[in-house]
């Protein structure tokens, strides 16, 4: 069995995120790189977003959203020198980079892969890389179809998405003796983009990745779950203005601590008045997290009888409100620097506004 069958493999130590030289868990890291050194990096970002935004409609992220940053505003953390904090690689290539925190929802990570595949398919000369704390998870998924020589210790800077397909830069051989034994990212992508060496991964690898992606990216929004919830009108308006706030709110509620309980009980930002019933959109993981939690609403929170048809919507709503209260209390305690995700599903984590926005609800 190929060593990539083990989920315990770590990515090369040269890619670090913190002082302990460890990759963060449940975070997908990615780069989008142009082989054209003369392209304006902001133009590259605009083209990427123009490709991706139509595919994000209706999608609810778990923790953070797709938000590629430009390298000229700050290099990716895995490219920085631990001592200087600056980009440790000499590169003339412009690139976008990002980190997607997906928490317990692994589907966010695979949706990201589908977006990167689409970007590289639609944008000639653009490649992408993606990995997490397990390492090259694309190779883990396709473990039974990999070349025998490809192991964690030989995979650094060799795996790319290009032209909508998975590419693997081979080792030097008798047929290609001039290939670098330890390529840089720039060298490897240059090899992928050239016609001199065949780098497209075997058909079995492509099939394994495509099978895992299924109907993504177009079909991703159809896998969301909508449920009726009873909320204070102010909270309903906040979620209508910022639908992606539901992810961080549910996560905050799900991982609540003693201080969070106080914030939820205070009901300062979303007092339980003007209760309305609205249709709220979740991903399946978020909905399961809410449903699986036992929660006694704060004293004074209006709840219908347990045998009432409205009780389920009220119970879900009480948990959502608690999560929103916790989320905003945490932000206030940290200085309130979070940015909203925006209606296009970009740039998280989402921060719910205090109030405002248009919404459709049935007042009760």
TrEMBL record:
This is Protein sgt1. GO terms for cellular component: nucleus. Residues 334-345 have a biased composition (Gly residues). It holds the Pfam family SGT1. Residues 333-364 are annotated as: Disordered.
